[in-house]
Amino acid sequence: AERAGKSGTDALELLPSSPCKMNENKPGDSQNLACVFCRKNDDCPNKYGEKKTKEKWNLTVHYYCLLMSSGIWQRGKEEEGVYGFLIEDIRKEVNRASKLKCCVCKKNGASIGCVAPRCKRSYHFPCGLQRECIFQFTGNFASFCWNHRPVQIITSNNYRESLPCTICLEFIEPIPSYNILRSPCCKNAWFHRDCLQVQAINAGVFFFRCTICSNSDIFQKEMLRMGIHIPEKDASWELEENAYQELLQHHERCDVRRCRCKEGRDYNAPDSKWEIKRCQCCGSSGTHLACSSLRSWEQNWECLECRGIIYNSGEFQKAKKHVLPNSNNVGITDCLLEESSPKLPRQSPGSQSKDLLRQGSKFRRNVSTLLIELGFQIKKKTKRLYINKANIWTSALDAFRNRNFNPSYAIEVAYVIENDNFGSEHPGSKQEFLSLLMQHLENSSLFEGSLSKNLSLNSQALKENLYYEAGKMLAISLVHGGPSPGFFSKTLFNCLVYGPENTQPILDDVSDFDVAQIIIRINTATTVADLKSVINECYNYLELIGCLRLITTLSDKYMLVKDILVYHVIQRVQAPFESFKQGLKTLGVLEKIQAYPEAFCSILCHKPESLSAKILSDLFTVHTLPDVKALGFWNSYLQAVEDGKSTTTMEDILIFATGCSSIPPAGFKPTPSIECLHVDFPVGNKCNNCLAIPVTNTYKEFQENMDFTIRNTLKLEKEESSHYIGH
User: Cα dist. 706→483, 652, 657, 696 in Å?
Assistant: First the structure.
């Protein structure tokens, strides 16, 4: 590489790497030789670059001291002199610097000068580091003193708390300074300068990028401007000899309890029943095809340890009841222990380790943390949505389809009444709106099923692109603090995470009564004649869906049932699924779900936990000076509601105060609060999540007033909604 500003090369050309060890020209005692520029004998490549000695010329230099010197050019080729700097030029520069005094240590030899106009400061490279000067390892290789160095400009700083350095994870104050830098592409990514420099040296120009979004162009330009040296080399981990050699080794041994191969466990005969198949999850266990009753090498198989981990995780417990065996010749024990899971996605051998399957604390992520991370995309700019509570779906659809709507803008809600001649509006609760929207979505014609729902086939909705809008709404709701949907079937969830081709539906996924009856009749046939009779009765349907097959044995019924399930639950709704999936990509939600399926399964496939007196008591904070008696009545009231001694429920209380019947996975914003007022009845402020409780003389009066107000308020809201819909 050349000094760009002095040889005419491109201003963004980067420098060669600084190896951590001396080259072959370095003599044995070079540790004690001082750099001719800075007069230090330190050998610290991360700070000063490689320390290189030319014994023939009795010359020792630090790479960075040489590179940043103001009066020298690279006139030779890379292999000439020291990195292309000729020996005679180095001596001339040393002689020039000997006449300049360092403004830091007051000693001669200051070869580096500040490039700011009319600034006469000169310094050694180590002295410049000590005084927090900036050295730019690109362009003209400019140096800036502490008064003229470039800084990062941030228009406003709303970070009230410390944030972690995204490299070392130590907490730092998010204020730009010499030692603290912010990513130009991710506004919530902060770094220690030393952490960035070490990472840049290890990663090199090809792998040095933002740790959050992986942007390299914008990120590298800013880091070069702020004095980070990015060597032009491959990453250090790519340079280790045979670093990934173990990845080329394959496990070739049968590890099942009873190996049936007469040639032994290590025998492997490709394209035969004695070919060894590795565990699709860990790749570190194997089986002969015949030893696990596998019909072909393409069939999935997991070892006993991985199978135990998967089935004990709880995610597949419910589905196990509906597994359809592939053969009636396989015993129950063999089927459970040796056959492949019908629900587990196909993966390449060795793609996951047992440690990852166990989802230990190192890999487990809390879903609320994941949603908060996604929430970092939300900008300060707000978009007001005008929502008609009586027609949530239509008004939400109009708002989200508006060309000025941006999912990353903060959402503000205003409730309006349709056909209101006065055009009145009043502030609404964003979380109440999202909660009502998710309730409508769950009960809409876009989904079918009772509790666990799959996508339906609605041609009109497909034509109007409503499946995409539903996925988009769901993604926006999750990121903006909406409730847990909780109505996805495991089959729909697995299709989103692992792909439809790796998912096997179950009978519970079929909501069509007639189709379910056909499947049950086929599955319960006891003879080949019975099976053929059922098929003849259903001939037209089976021909229509492309599931007719030749029946030779009774076991063929299992493949037939599997074909019907796959068609009805997956293939039939392929177009709605793809559209819904695209909508769910909004704000990066689908990618996050696929990266952390275990975390998101808890909110997409399961309803939130039931509220209790303790949960609500802990949820509401007291912001004003409390009335001790009123707070005591409040806690007693919560306990009475939990014990069934009240006409209201825990959900009613939460809806009255916040508009939500459950706690959103990302939490409430603002945090729900309690205040005690000298009023007769409680007041719920859903916009601020604030509940004002009355100050009464007796607990009986307190409970009666709470029950009466909450019950009648919610009843009135439902009646108003029905009234508007009726008109």
Answer: 25, 11, 12, 11
